[in-house]
Design brief:
Blueprint (H helix, E strand, L loop, with lengths): L1 E2 L5 E5 L7 H10 L6 E6 L6 E8 L3 H11 L15 E3 L12 E6 L7 H9 L5 E8 L5 E9 L2 H10 L12 E4 L1 E2 L14 H4 L6 H8 L6 E4 L2 E4 L1 H7 L2 E2 L7 H21 L19
Antiparallel strand pairs: 1-7, 2-4, 2-5, 3-4, 6-8, 6-9, 7-8, 10-13, 11-12
Helix pairs in contact: 2-3
């Protein structure tokens, strides 16, 4: 998940042990991003690379641009293919957690990445905090993503104003509230059938949770910073799209039928007037 950078430094993980500073620097440059410097972190005991580094930029805006444009993209010159795994080095350091309000964004064409989606929302809503385009194992967009805000008012405005908004994707986007993921009970074999819970509302949901359920990021730290990279990705795993396709006509019909039954029951339950004192009482009516 691409978050707002509070420092001009990015954390980069999943490094191969034979990657040097020159190789990583060239990887950024070949993608059109210039860095100021980087430092590969080594294990204090073994002296071997710890699998992550810190990349410095001239300012936090450049770091934000690199994070949004490169995160999840293929690193040039890697075989087998490896992808940029980036996050803000300052993520998780804030002592006071901010409230978060999320939106699901669908109907995204494959040319929309985190950078494009973030720019579209951030320039309209000041509290836009992060975005995430969901991709498959090959890095291809699945056509949907999530946007997070720190102010509920912005979330509610975006829900209305960005619905079917043109100009971001090759087709108008679809926006809805993202809801917390429901707990998934395992079956007798211990396996979890995600499709039983997420496949009925939208075709993307099941594959989204199957993909993100098996991907985590390592914890890491060094002399001057402590960075927990699992938090940003894991947070997105707690969201899903709510049920959007509501059969209004069916619900209205059911409501009207129930209302008629209640009305008839009330009418039948009224006391029937007696013609005379000798009239027999009517049999009781069941409601």
């Amino acid at each position: 998940m691409a978050v707002i950078c509070t420092t001009p430094t990015l954390w980069m993980g999943d490094l191969e042990s034979d990657w040097g500073e020159e190789f990583i620097t060239n990887g950024f440059q070949n993608m059109g991003i210039t860095i100021r410097s980087l430092k590969i972190i080594k294990n204090k005991v073994t002296g071997l690379p710890a699998g992550y580094c810190f990349v410095d930029f001239t300012d936090k805006d450049k770091a934000q641009e690199a994070l949004l444009k490169l995160n999840g993209k293929v690193i040039p010159g890697t075989s087998p293919v490896r992808r940029f795994k980036l996050n803000s080095a300052g993520y998780g350091k804030d002592s006071t957690p901010l409230p978060e309000f999320s939106l699901f964004v669908g109907e995204l064409s494959d040319d929309v990445d985190d950078y494009v989606l973030y720019q579209a929302f951030a320039k309209r809503y000041r509290s836009c905090r992060s975005v995430k385009i969901v991709t498959d194992s090959s890095g291809r967009s699945k056509g949907y993503g999530f946007v997070r805000f720190t102010e509920e008012n912005d979330q509610q405005r975006a829900l209305i104003e960005m619905q079917h908004f043109p100009g971001i994707s090759r087709r108008p986007i679809r926006v809805s509230l993202a809801t917390p993921k429901r707990p998934l009970p395992p079956d007798v074999s211990g396996d979890v059938h995600y499709s039983h819970y997420y496949g009925h509302n939208y075709p993307y949901s099941a594959s989204y949770y199957q993909y993100y359920g098996s991907h985590t990021a390592p914890h890491s730290s060094h002399d001057h910073a402590h960075h927990e990279s699992t938090t940003a990705e894991d947070e997105m795993d707690t969201l899903e799209e709510p049920e959007l396709e509501i059969d209004v006509f069916r619900y209205n019909k059911d409501f009207m039928e129930q209302s008629e039954e209640v009305f008839e029951a009330i009418e039948l339950s009224r006391w029937t007037p007696l013609d005379s004192i000798t009239s027999k009482l009517p049999p009781p009516m069941s409601i």
